[in-house]
Amino acid sequence: MHIAIAGNIGSGKTTLAGLLARHFGWKPHYEDVDDNPYLDDFYNDMQRWSFNLQVYFLNTRFNHILEIRKAKDTVIQDRTIYEDAFIFAPNLHSMGLMSTRDFENYFTIFNLISSLIQPPDLIIYLRASVPTLVRQIEKRGRKYEDNIRIDYLKKLNERYDSWAESYNMGKMLVIDVDNLNFIDKTEDLSAVIDRINAELHGLF
Question: I need a labelling partner for 60 at 20 to 30 A (CA). Which of 28, 32, 77, 127 fits?
Fold first, then answer.
């Protein structure tokens, strides 16, 4: 199976992916942010680097999906290709940070890729308020994220909620994480695991 975790920057995707991989024996597939050659430039000058960054994500996630579908084990993926196409790229375009020409070019590439892949068997969407996102971003202390704008996170959240409401490509489990602590509270993690089991196996 292919399980994926979706959510805004700082929502806890990587943390939960690791915990679920350990619990279920799944193979984790993390977003490689440390080796991304565009992130630092992007957060310093979004308009200049938005198209480059989104094409980089599109290419790498397409390759990840091909690897995941070849795997014999169940894989849990940190972020999906659909978030890039339906949330991040449109948001950059609407904010005037990606030109219409670049956005249309990007979406043409995405539509081709989308026709060649299957969606995850289950998407777990971690919904978080902007204060929670900011707190988590500050806690992990990635230098290139120092310049993330509050209005950028807010607009992304609005698009995430809209995408989740209209998603019809498979199963999606929405988890509100504002009052959850996966790391320190075993009962919080257990509650999430129970909900995932219910989605995958019909266990209540």
Answer: 127
